[in-house]
Amino acid sequence: MTNLNEQITQLLQQELVIALGCTEPVAIAWAASVARSHVQGEMTHLDVTISPNVMKNAMAVGIPGMKQTGIDFVAALGAIAGDPNRKLEVLTGVPAEAEGKAETFIAANQVQIKLTDSPKKLYIELCVHSANEQAKVIIEDVHTNITRIEVGDDLIFNKACEYYHEQEDQESDLYSQLSLERIYQYIQDVSLDDLELVKESITLNRAICMEGLKDSYGLQVGKILKENVTKGLLSDDVITHAMALTSAGSDARMAGVMMPVMSNSGSGNQGIAVTMPVVAVAEKIKASEEKMIRAVAFSHLLAIWIKSKFGRLSALCGVTVAGASAAAAITYLLGGDVNQMSFAMQNAIGNVTGMLCDGAKAGCAMKVSTCTGAAVQSALLATSGMRVPGTNGIIGEGLDESIDNFCRLGNEGSLKMDELILDMMLNKRKD
Questions:
Q1: Which fold has domain 21-159?
Q2: Which of 254, 248, 257, 253 is closest to 224 using CA atoms?
């Protein structure tokens, strides 16, 4: 029987996935490319059916290597030039001329988009048509989870419900055994050889953050923070360094830079935001490479654990989860004990909970910056023995209660909020 440490290692390998571009539009492109691979002849039109959460995250964010944005564009691009074998790296190597072909396809009104009736927060259905054929691909719950492929009237792939529920039961059993203390024990015991994906997350996510600091992407949140350190308006302290470095990665990613990131629980921004605040603090305090790797693994796993309750998509910003997770990992770097790590997480939850997710876009870098600053501040308070008390708001006396309350807001509170947010996004005044 697989022991718990081995299961946790497998969980890391499952939830740390390399992605090129924002995961919602990229998943749309992947579904389109898979459907297109089953259709012969010239493509005549595309039907895109998605959940509201997917729609809001795919509307305005940059597409890797492209000037154009939009759901219709990324669906057409994936169908025309995407590599169906590359999953969330589907747009790797797409030639420049594919952008013009996708624009022409859209201009001819050959892409139709509608919202699904499915209650699932992550639902993507792509139907590719040619003159005589059609193929449909459905993705549900997880960005890389194709559950159904139909070609014409033939069902050629169907993820069996029994298998899916068995997998869910196994994951639920694993998550029920996780806690802050158990994850902390794991990162102390695990061999560095089992953390190769964590090391790769540091390499990939640091590279895109350095690119964001170097060039002008999006709102240039990270770059401008760094420039103001040079001007003497900001000090080069640990909080500013972490905020600048981490938000620069989101600046570049949201602008569509052709650089992959290591995502966490289906989110590239969350992958950056659990990794880079920890790396930034490790750099500042000159922590050993081994301690930095273990701290980043700690941050990744805490986010995966919380997201198992919070859900992959929500009306609340997922980077708040990353902020709480990074806060505990930073406390670990600073020499804090498990009790102080719990304090740090509760401080972060008591601070940034309520930040809305109004889609993937340039402004996400500001939210990444805010949650990064909150993570460092929360850790500094915690290592001084301070935490938001259980008498305050949604914070409970224990960490588990605080996390459960936070996740209730993300789940039970999301439905009406998502409806309002999407309505505002779709019906902005043009005057």
A1: 60s Ribosomal Protein L30; Chain: A; (3.30.1330)
A2: 248
